[in-house]
Amino acid sequence: MKPRDLFMALLIVTIWGANFTVIKLGLADIPPMLLAGLRYVFATLTAIFFIKRPKTSWKYLAMYGLTVGIGQFSCLFYALKIGMPAGIASIVLQAQPFFTVIFSAFLFKESLYRLQILGFAIAFTGLYLIGGDTSGVPLPLASFLLTILAACFWSISNIVIRYSAIEATQKQEKLDMLAVVIWSSLLLPVPFFLLALLFNSPQELLSVVTNLKPSSLAAVLYLALGATVF
């Protein structure tokens, strides 16, 4: 691997890892669904005018947005709001590969070999050992289950991308994942704002938006530009 590629990979890991702490900070002043909606508003507005629509159907863009966006982040943001520690959430969310392998085996008939099973057992044990210690602080069951559900939705989005890539290959096209992320984001703000209205009144949401603190705005921009677009 070239030094530049290694640096970029490590930078992405660092930015994405800090994402969980930033979400927690943003939730201090912004309701979960509103925070997620604002994330996608800024992610879309900063890039959609410069990136062409990907070579895939709106069906897959909508399915990807609903799973990785609405499904994953509504569960994750609300879990963090009701008590899930940011560090533990980042570990529990890594259950995603386990779900992806199961779904792939069922839908695409992909084989799972003994060494892979052993590797998953070791990985699962590692996740449990890393994420299992909450320093004596009780972990709310609802927040844990929501984070597991978020991982499940994330894995389903991987399956959607697989189907989308197959469609693109059949048309002798190449699927542009950056374009998929940006154009699927276009579909997400309205559903998130509607979800926000289930938890907060319009007056409360308007008050939050019109009185955003600099730290809250910084959190939104980090989630939109760093954790989503970059």
Give descriptors for this structure:
mainly alpha; 0% strand; 230 residues; globular
Describe the structure.
Helix content is 76%, strand content 0%. It is mostly helical and 230 residues long. Helix 2 runs antiparallel to helix 9. The two termini are 20 Å apart. The mean pLDDT is 91.
- Count of DSSP H/I helices: 11
Q: Structural class, judged by helices and strands?
A: mainly alpha
Major beta sheet, specifics?
none
Q: Please indicate the percent range of residues in DSSP E strands (runs of 2 or more).
A: under 5%
Order of helices and strands: HHHHHHHHHHH
Radius of gyration: 18 Å
Q: What's the pLDDT, averaged over the residues? A: 91
What spatial form do the alpha-carbon principal axes imply? Answer: globular
How many beta strands in the DSSP annotation?
A: 0
Helix content: over 70%
Residue windows where pLDDT falls under 50 for at least 5 positions: none
Distance between the termini: 20 Å
Write the layout of secondary structure elements.
Layout (H helix, E strand, L loop, with lengths): L2 H24 L5 H14 L12 H24 L4 H7 L3 H12 L6 H18 L9 H30 L6 H9 L3 H11 L2 H9 L3 H16 L1
Helix pairs in contact: 1-4, 1-11, 2-3, 2-9, 2-11, 3-7, 3-8, 4-6, 5-7
